[in-house]
Specification:
39% of the residues lie in helices and 14% in strands. Helix 2 (21-34) packs antiparallel against helix 9 (243-253), helix 3 (40-54) packs parallel to helix 9 (243-253) and helix 4 crosses helix 8 (212-222). The protein has helices spanning 13-19, 21-34, 40-54, 65-75, 93-100, 119-125, 145-155, 212-222, 243-253, 256-274, 304-313, 343-351, 363-377; strands spanning 58-62, 83-86, 104-107, 130-133, 160-162, 170-172, 178-180, 187-191, 205-209, 226-228, 231-232, 280-281, 296-300, 352-355. The radius of gyration is 21 Å and the shape is globular. The protein has 13 helices and 14 strands. The chain is of the alpha/beta class and 380 residues long. Strands 1-9-8-5 form a four-stranded mixed β-sheet, sandwiched between helices. It has a three-stranded parallel β-sheet with strand order 3-2-4, with helices on one face.
Amino acid sequence: MAIETRQIQMVDLQTQYQKIKKEVDAAIQEVMDTGMFVNGPAVKEFCDNLASFLDVKHVIPCANGTDALQIALMALDLKPGDEVITCPFTFVATVEVIALLGLKPVFVDVDPDTYNMDVQKLKAAITEKTKAIIPIHLFGQGADMEPIMKIADEHGIPVVEDNAQAIGADYYFKDGKSQKLGTIGKIGCTSFFPSKNLGAFGDGGAMFTNDDALADRLRMIVNHGMKVRYYHDDIGVNSRLDAMQAAVLNVKLKHLETYNEARREAANFYDSLLMDKPDVQTPVRSVFSSHVFHQYTLKIEGKRDQVAKHLQESGIPHGIYYPVPLHVQKAYDGYGYKAGDFPVSETLAEKVLSLPMHTELDESLQKFIIEKLEEGLNIA
């Protein structure tokens, strides 16, 4: 198959931009014309539109997804030594902010199919010191929020959703109702890093909540602890969403559902090409959450590294998210965890491999990618 490997990108933001170029350029020019580069109408309009899309009362913007998580925990008045439950199989930011605030990360292993928090193991991790739970909606699919919220509510523990990878995905409750991920817990957090499903042209992040008082607190913290200029009621930070980024995001928000559907279609086509490969497990779709495929992540039995090497040699980008679980990372070895404590996360770290996934994939590119993956599987 004659495919130029330069066409294959992990995330094709250039082609995506070309399709919305006129809209984006006009939005950026409007910010330039107003000269309001910090806060201003572009940021307010985006936040209002995102709140409407998510059906949540408050969207509080900030500079990036890591700040969103840190500010959310700051708003909960946690004290040094308080425990925060989360998962070891994720990007470091979730645990990084826990450590930065002097809190203690308490890990719960993940489900081997969805890669999200194993609810059956959550109860056993709760102690008198547990003051927050951070479920992570990994790779574009939700953690099982209904039982997580039930457990949290029974113990009076706030839930902060890490929704950096699943913006626009729905959670389905047993009574038939649905709700956008990130709006179920006390606070939801997201990232607008360029490669996200809703990505800016730089960094950005946001928090969501339906709690009016908490929203006011979050807004103060992102702005140096100020509600009234030069009157500091809280210890805060300086974390703002740039107006240029808000303008870009406001355009892309209009296309988000189309983007997510394009990712689902690409994922379904990958599935069809891989259905007869016994060494490969394609992504499992849970019954309680839609999947927006921030990543298309396979489990490859015994041959992951040789497949990754062959893809690299064939000019095909891929990702291993995440090669070292957080509980055995050097930076976090002071919390008393060791290899073997969370076997599912450790096994996944040895088996997962993510293929190119974005809104601009076409079937010919996908066929070529899977052709090279098959070659990697068949190397003796």
